[in-house]
Amino acid sequence: MIIATNVTKKFGRLTVLNNVSVNCNKGECIALIGPNGSGKTTLVKSILGMVVPDSGFITYNGQNILCNWNYREHIGYMPQIGRYPENMTIGHVIAMMKDIRKSNHNGPLDEELIEQFDISNMFNKRMRTLSGGTTQRVSAALAFLFNPDVLILDEPTAGLDPVASELLKEKIIKEKQKGKLILITSHILSELDDLVTQVIYMQDGNLLFHKSLEHLQNDTGEKKLSRVIASVMRNQS
Amino acid sequence: MIKIVKYVMADILRNKIIIAYTIFLLVIGMSVFNLEDNTTKGLLSLLNIVLIVVPLVCIIFSTIYVYNSAEFVELLVSQPLQRKHIWLSLFCGIALALVLAFFIGIGLPVLLYSFSATGIILVAVGLMLTVIFVAIAMLAAVKTRDKAKGIGIAVLLWLYFSLLFDGLVLFILFQFADYPLENFMLFLSTLNPVDIGRIFILLKMDVSALMGYTGAIFQNFFGTLPGMITATIVMLLWMVLPLYFSLRIFNRKDL
Predict the structure, then answer these.
(1) pTM given for the model
(2) Size of interface A-B (CB pairs under 8 A)
(3) Which residues of chain B neighbour A100 with C-beta distances below 8 Å?
(4) Which residues on neighbouring strands pair with residue A203, listed in sequence order?
């Protein structure tokens, strides 16, 4: 569904992505794992077209995403740090997003998270007055709102309280069962255990491996994702 | 695209700065005509406002606004929208709001008190300068990531167009006084939209005699229809080119 081929991106002299190639298919739930600064967010942002790669290309359903924007209607993106126009209220932001995507979205809206996160009670709050966790809730609600085929979640549970992160996790599992492609980056490996089917491991801009979780479990003889990764990292060094 | 322009406009029109700017222009526009009996004198006073204050306010307000809407742009870029449309909508929103402010502040008094060819040209030049300086501001803001640096560049650009450029022209004139520079002057003046605007209005006021032989050359060129059309095209280029370059940079920009 999403295929990245030899994507390279440099910020000045620093190579953030070095010849990265990935192939993501429908129905998979992929964990993007790697140390800080390994290029996870940059990879996600290049898939969204927010970062333009220096070389290589990315296709969505066979179409090159460069100079193409319509494919983004199939993607729900939850940024690591949601940044919103400061003097708009939550209600305005949600209404604006609905308005903007109205023309190319004609299915029902998925307002489950808006209800579960109690966002409708805060519609009049301005974005600049929100706490980090509340902003994350708004980001999550917006990512799921349009029933997208692909969900890209960058550190979804960072900053959420346990109740909210449990709700979000349940929601992710539910969407996964509908056969959507889900890409999650996270550092909290224990949270990913019951979610992921595949693991992409990145380090210093290189993609070290992309394997299914079963495969990794067989390779290392461990059950828990955190231990699997720890064992892989030990073997590599 | 119209939707995004709507959101940008709604946001700017709620802004107190733009309302203060409109009232400031309106107060000056009204008082200039009420203090003087001679409307030509009034227009001459307004000329300085149009050539100095309008570019300054437009370039600084637009630069700061573009930086402040970084979040808005970031939010929209991850949505199914064309980058080109996002950037052009931002431009249209800012330009429309400032054009509206200028039209209410200066346009209305001029059309009420001095409805003449000179008055209309003054308003037209002001409107064009507004759009030109918004376009230049967009280019300055997209080129630099740092807000303080971007605003600094915007101020420097204004300083260049309003003061430094004239200084440079005078310097060249004195250095090369022995050579015939009239046609070269004509070319030089097209490098600065503020200058073209000034020449335009002064010629219409029939004070070109004050500018000596160069004034006669200007009169000869800008006074004719082809000259007027050329000057208008140059002004349009000053709107389109900075916007085009800013768009090209924005299309490849990492957010």
Answers:
(1) 0.90
(2) 59
(3) 3-4, 76, 79, 81
(4) A206
Q: CB distance A83–B69 less than 8 Å?
A: no
Flag the least confident range among B3-7, B56-60, B208-212: B208-212
End-to-end CA distance of chain B: 20
Taking CA atoms, B7 is separated from A95, A136, B94, B199, B246, in Å, by: 11, 23, 11, 37, 21
H or E segment to which residue A230 belongs: helix A225-236
Give the tens place of pLDDT for each residue, B22-32: 999 999 999 98
* Contact residues for A186 (Cβ-Cβ < 8 A; gap 6+): A31, A32, A33, A155, A156, A157, A158, A192
Kindly provide the b/e burial profile for residues A221-232, where b requires at least 16 CB atoms within 10 angstroms of the residue's own CB.
ebeebeebbeeb
Contacts by residues B83-88 (CB-CB < 8 Å, ≥ 24 positions apart):
B83/A69, B83/B250, B83/B251, B84/B247, B84/B251, B85/B1, B85/B4, B86/B4, B87/B138, B87/B246, B87/B247, B87/B250, B87/B251, B88/B1, B88/B243, B88/B247
Q: Hey, is A19 helix, strand or coil?
A: strand
Hey, which residues does A57 pair with through a beta bridge? A5
Give the closest-approach CA distance of A209 to chain B in angstroms. Answer: 26
Residue A237 has pLDDT above 70, yes or no: no
pLDDT at A143: 92
ipTM above 0.95, yes or no: no
User: What's the pLDDT tens digit per position in B148-203?
Assistant: 999 999 999 999 999 899 888 888 888 888 888 777 888 888 899 998 888 888 88
**Which numeric CATH code is attached to A2-236?**
3.40.50.300
B65 and B12 in contact (C-beta within 8 Å)? yes
Distance CA B123, CA B74 (A): 36
Residue environment code for B152-165, b if the CB has 16+ CB neighbours within 10 A, otherwise e = ebbeebbeebbeeb
Q: Which H or E run includes A32?
A: strand A29-33
**Cβ pair A161, A99 in contact under 8 A:** no
Length of chain B: 255
Token output for A114: 């808006």
Residue A31 CB partners (closer than 8 Å, separation 6+): A184, A185, A186, A192, A195, A196, A198, A199, A200, A225
Chain A residues within 8 A of B15 when measuring between CB atoms:
none
Mutate to test the interface with A, among B3, B79, B81 (most CBs of A within 10 A): B79
Query: Minimal Cα distance from B252: which residue of A?
Result: A52
